[in-house]
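Example record for the data management plan.
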Amino acid sequence: MTTRSDESGEREQLESDARRYLSQQLGRRAPTQLRFETLFDERPLENEGATALFSFHLEVGSTCGRQRQKHFVAVGQTEPNYFPAFQMDDDDAYSFHVGTRFMLTMRLGLVDAEMEPPGAREAMHRFVESYAAGLTLESEEVAALLRCDEACFAVYRLKLSGAAYYCLGADCPSGFYPVEQLAPQTVLRLHLGRVIRREARQEPT
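Corresponding structural encoding:
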C-alpha cells in the first residue's frame, strides 16, 4: 500500500533529481524554483517508465532582449531532458518528450529535401484531400526531411486557403497541424510522441 508519505518522498526525490540535472546542464542559470506538474505512469518506449514533469522559468535571449520563458524538465524512469514549453500543456509536453526520446534513440537526422521518397508527395496530397476537404492547396514545400536507416520522415509546410499548416508524411504516420510559429522538428517530435503513446495504450496487456 502506497502512503502519502511514500508519495511525498518519491516526489522529493524526483525534484532532487531534476535540480541536479538542471544544475549540470545550466550551471548558474539553473532555476531556484521548480513546480511539480504531474507524473505520467506509462511505458511508451522500451526502457522508459514513470516520468515526472516539473516546470520552471528560464531567462533566454541576448543581453539586449532577455525574457523569462517557461520550460519543462522530465525526470524519472527516463533520460532527463529539459525543453521550452512552446505553449504546450502537460500532456503534450510529455508527448514531446517521448517523441524526442524516440528520435534520439533511432538517431533520426536531417537530410536534404531532394532525398524525398518517391510517392511521398502524392500520398501527402491524398491525405490533405481527405483531411482538409474544401480547402485550396496554394503552396507546398518540404520543411524538414529526417532519415534513419531506410525510414524517412517528412514534414511539409503547406498554405491552404490562406492559412499555414504542417503535414507529416512519407514513412511517418500522417498528421496535420497549424504552423503557429513552431519549428518543423518540434512538430515532428510532438506528433511522434502522440502516436507512440496512443499505440502503446492500444497494445493488449
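Summary line stored alongside the record: The helical segments are 4-26, 90-106, 120-131, 184-202.
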